Amino acid sequence: MYRFTLELLFQIIGIGSASGLLLKNNQLNIISDNGTYLYAYEMKSAHLNRYPLSVRPEENIAKKLKPDFEAITSYGEIIYIFSSGSTAARNQLLKVNAENKKIISRMNLSALYHKMQSIAGINPENFNIEGVVFTGEDWYFFNRGNGDAGKNGLFKIEGKSLDAAGKMSFKEFLLPKIKSVPTGFTDAIKVGGKLYFLAAAEDSNSTYQDGAVFGTLIGSIDLEKMELDFSQQISDQHKFEGLTLKTQTAVSLTFLLCEDNDSDKLKADIYQLTLKR
């Protein structure tokens, strides 16, 4: 087990419902599940830039209309932003230049998401992608088990291109509960040979409707064994939905986390979590 410290590092005014983080090129890249902007926050100068992800970018889009951007990952100089797939309207993949934040391409993931549901035996009401990791060779998609089936799982897709997705597999993971409320994957990142993930407890059996929050845990999955290494509760009140690595040493890992406040308030709390052996 780890010893951990969790602290509020800073607050960013101008971002609501932060759902994903990516620290890259000395910038904290942030997505929101309520809007269609990619935010780039310069931590040294505390300056925030907004980059549109649609023709008419908005913040606080109505729930039934929003693309629901929930996962952000990168490889090389490309940032990948994914919709959750939790409704038929939430099937976008945006490839963005990491330097200038211009959109390189858009892809409709409906066919891929349908294939993933079929392989995992998950119906559309229980499909909700909240974290994606790209290693340059393989893709890992984390399904949040906050539907009535409670199916937390990890998809592995072999191959660099999702246009011609290669061999696909799925493994379900049983995660601990918090105060008798099930937890579900909310984000993940690769560090060495492990996938570190967040999982939040929210008192709702719907991928669409929000519920009371009972906390978040962190854990890791061994990539070679595809087994759960550990899980540990880090909060009994926050729903953390974004995870990115800040620093690592031989004995510690320091992450940045963002909290989804499930409101229309344009502020984002960024936390620092340090795990020590």
Protein architecture, described:
By secondary structure, this protein is mainly beta. It has one helix and 21 strands. Strands 14-15-16-17-18 form a five-stranded antiparallel β-sheet, with no helix packed on it. A four-stranded antiparallel β-sheet has the order 1-21-20-19, with no helix packed on it. It has a four-stranded antiparallel β-sheet with strand order 2-3-4-5, with no helix packed on it. Strand 14 and strand 15 form a beta hairpin.
Mean pLDDT: 94
Please count the beta strands (DSSP E, at least 2 residues each). 21
Sheet of most strands: 5 strands, antiparallel
- Fraction of residues in β-strands: over 45%
Specify the overall morphology: globular
Uncertain parts? none
DSSP helix fraction: under 10%
Order of helices and strands: EEEEEEEEEHEEEEEEEEEEEE
Radius of gyration: 17 Å
Strand order of the largest sheet: 14-15-16-17-18
Question: Structural class from helices and strands?
Answer: mainly beta
End-to-end distance, in Å? 7 Å
Number of helices: 1
Any chance you could write out the topology, listing elements then pairs?
Blueprint: E1 3-13, E2 18-24, E3 27-32, E4 37-42, E5 47-52, E6 69-75, E7 78-83, E8 92-97, E9 103-108, H1 110-120, E10 129-134, E11 138-143, E12 153-158, E13 168-172, E14 177-178, E15 181-191, E16 194-203, E17 212-222, E18 227-235, E19 240-248, E20 252-259, E21 267-276
Antiparallel strand pairs: 1-21, 2-3, 3-4, 4-5, 6-7, 7-8, 8-9, 10-11, 11-12, 12-13, 14-15, 15-16, 16-17, 17-18, 19-20, 20-21
